[in-house]
């Protein structure tokens, strides 16, 4: 299929890109699989996990998602999990109030699809990992932040502060996020996160195809 | 540029379809706590040893209504998994009980030992969101004097109903590090066992931690099995079996300690449970 995509031009390429995008959308989401902890289900395809049991407002969830999206667009991709209680950890409730360990555990679970930076926010602190491994330098950055505290709004703000602090430590400025318009309960933020991921995925696919096509053209013409 | 805009616009269409496409700013909405819960769990009093006991319960959705719609189909990620383990990890019950149209879940279990038990309800609601399953916990008591058994030390070979399970190599397991255990199973004649899919998997690896009874569950999947193997994520902790009598069991436990692995499989119509004691280092 990829080969036929590369051979296509003009409208044919457009149609096949559409097909690729549809296949990607249909395949990537419903077949996501991970057992035990809910965040590992969400973060396979989304950039943020906002637990359902904390009463987090849709605008707060959207602010977090917007911050993560802004960081990504500034060249600092990261995924964030807010964990307010043992309930949010599913079968790994043993890691309640252990954000560093859970960041490693969750990162390990996600490694097949995501090797990037992961921030876990719990009421008593933060955890940072990449590919299931701790990131001591980043951990020191978030350890300097105040403990998030209990409550959904506090966790959201801590997540935003954590992302901005980590990005700043890497020389990336992430501007204050505005809540996304619209929304519809907590699902709004989740859809937002999915959208950001989908757009990024499709952009990457399109860019890759364009690059490959140009290289092939260059190779054929000897330019 | 149009080549880039095309997928972007498509993504926007998908987004709009997903959220209803509202463009009006909305006021913050703070919903009530959204959790699933076990309700009317029976029996609520100690049950008798050796007597069939009807266990029943309902799962209440975050909106207060009974959960009646569960994932169905091939593979183990469906319905409700009811796991009951004695506190000393000396015995386990693992069933996938039927679900009545009103959401009532019932199963008859006969307990052979008195004492306290932990009940794990691992449920797979038929929701459209990414969350596949959740766990709910409760306890029950089997009447009689509880004399906890010491957990056996690690042994690489366990015989269950005449079938020998052999764990190859001394496992070196660490918390939060995915690993694989290789297990071979021989029938009473010493021949490699032929596994039959049971509850959607060739084998179920159920882990409980000594003392805290923390729980984790992975599956061993047949090659090409539908609905069993992971497509994305956690594949490294899903086991496999492509050779008769051989199982590769995925392990990923959250904390160090002594863990009991109950490896369950079906061979020649027998449901076999082989327990192993595993030391998991930090």
Description:
The complex is a heterodimer of chains A (223) and B (282). Helices cover 54% and strands 9% of the residues of chain A. Chain A is built from eight helices and five strands; from the N terminus they run αααβαβαβββααα. In chain A, β2, α5 and β3 (117-122) form a beta-alpha-beta unit. The radius of gyration of chain A is 19 Å and the shape is globular. By secondary structure, chain B is mainly beta. Chain B has one helix at 2-19; strands at residues 37-42, 53-60, 80-86, 92-95, 104-109, 115-123, 134-142, 157-160, 163-167, 173-174, 179-186, 195-196, 203-209, 215-222, 239-241, 246-251, 257-267, 270-281. Mean pLDDT of chain B is 83; it is low at 1-32 and 230-236. The interface between A and B is large, with 73 and 63 residues.
Number of structural units classed as domains of chain A: 2
User: Could you report the average pLDDT of chain A, rounded to the nearest whole number?
Assistant: 75
Please identify, by name, the CATH architecture of the largest domain in chain B: Sandwich
- The CATH architecture of the largest domain in chain A is Roll
CATH domain fold name of the largest domain in chain A = Diaminopimelate Epimerase, Chain A, domain 1
Taken together, the total number of domains of chain B comes to 2
Number of helices of chain B: 1
Give the proportion of residues in helices of chain B. Answer: under 10%
Largest sheet of chain A: 5 strands, mixed
Low-confidence stretches of chain A: 1-34, 180-204, 217-223
Strand content bin of chain B: 35-45%
Mean pLDDT value of chain B: 83
- Termini separation of chain B: 51 Å
**CATH first level of the largest domain in chain B:** Mainly Beta
Instruction: Specify the CATH class of the largest domain in chain A.
Output: Alpha Beta
Q: Please identify the structural class of chain A as seen in this structure.
A: alpha/beta
Structural class of chain B: mainly beta
């Amino acid at each position: 299929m990829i080969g036929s995509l590369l051979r296509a031009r003009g409208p044919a390429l457009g149609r096949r890109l559409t097909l690729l995008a549809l296949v990607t959308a249909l395949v990537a989401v419903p077949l996501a699989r991970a057992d035990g902890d809910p965040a590992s289900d969400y973060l396979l395809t989304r950039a943020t996990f906002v637990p359902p049991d904390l009463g987090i407002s849709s605008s707060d969830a959207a602010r977090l998602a917007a911050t993560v999206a802004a960081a990504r667009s500034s060249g600092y991709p990261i995924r964030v999990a807010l964990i307010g209680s043992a309930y949010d950890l599913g079968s790994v409730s043993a890691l309640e109030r252990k954000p560093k360990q859970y960041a490693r555990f969750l990162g390990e679970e996600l490694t097949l699809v995501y090797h990037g930076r992961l921030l876990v926010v719990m009421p008593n602190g933060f955890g940072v990992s990449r590919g299931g491994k701790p990131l001591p330098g980043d951990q020191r950055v978030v350890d300097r932040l105040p403990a998030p505290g209990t409550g959904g709004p506090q966790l959201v703000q801590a997540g935003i502060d954590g992302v901005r602090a980590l990005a700043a430590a890497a020389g990336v400025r992430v501007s204050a996020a505005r809540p996304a318009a619209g929304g519809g309960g907590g699902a709004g933020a989740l859809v937002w996160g999915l959208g950001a991921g989908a757009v990024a995925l499709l952009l990457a696919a399109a860019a890759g195809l364009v690059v490959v096509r140009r290289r092939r053209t260059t190779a054929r013409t000897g330019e | 540029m149009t080549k880039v805009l095309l997928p972007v616009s498509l993504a926007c269409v998908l987004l709009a379809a997903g959220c209803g496409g509202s463009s009006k700013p909305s006021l913050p909405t703070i919903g009530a706590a959204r959790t699933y819960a076990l309700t009317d769990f029976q029996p609520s009093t100690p049950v008798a040893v050796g007597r069939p006991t009807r266990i029943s319960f309902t799962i209440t959705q975050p909106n207060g209504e009974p959960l009646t719609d569960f994932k169905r189909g091939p593979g183990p990620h469906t319905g409700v998994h009811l796991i009951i383990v004695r506190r000393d990890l000396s015995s386990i019950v693992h069933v996938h009980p039927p679900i009545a149209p009103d959401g009532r879940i019932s199963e008859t279990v006969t307990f052979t030992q008195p004492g306290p038990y932990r009940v794990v309800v691992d449920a797979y609601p038929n929701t459209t969101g990414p969350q596949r399953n959740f766990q709910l916990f409760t306890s029950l008591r089997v009447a009689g004097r509880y004399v906890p058994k010491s957990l056996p030390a690690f042994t690489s070979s366990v015989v269950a109903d005449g079938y020998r399970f052999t764990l190859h190599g001394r496992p070196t397991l660490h918390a939060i590090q995915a690993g694989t255990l290789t297990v071979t199973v021989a029938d009473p004649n010493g021949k490699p066992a032929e596994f039959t899919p049971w509850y959607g998997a060739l084998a179920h690896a159920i882990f409980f931690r000594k003392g805290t009874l923390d729980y984790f569950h992975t599956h061993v999947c047949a090659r090409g099995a539908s609905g069993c193997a992971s497509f994305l994520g956690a594949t490294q902790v899903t086991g496999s079996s492509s050779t008769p009598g051989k199982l590769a069991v995925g392990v990923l436990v959250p904390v160090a300690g002594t863990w009991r692995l109950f490896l369950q499989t079906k061979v020649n119509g027998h449901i076999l449970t082989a327990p192993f004691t595993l030391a998991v280092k930090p």
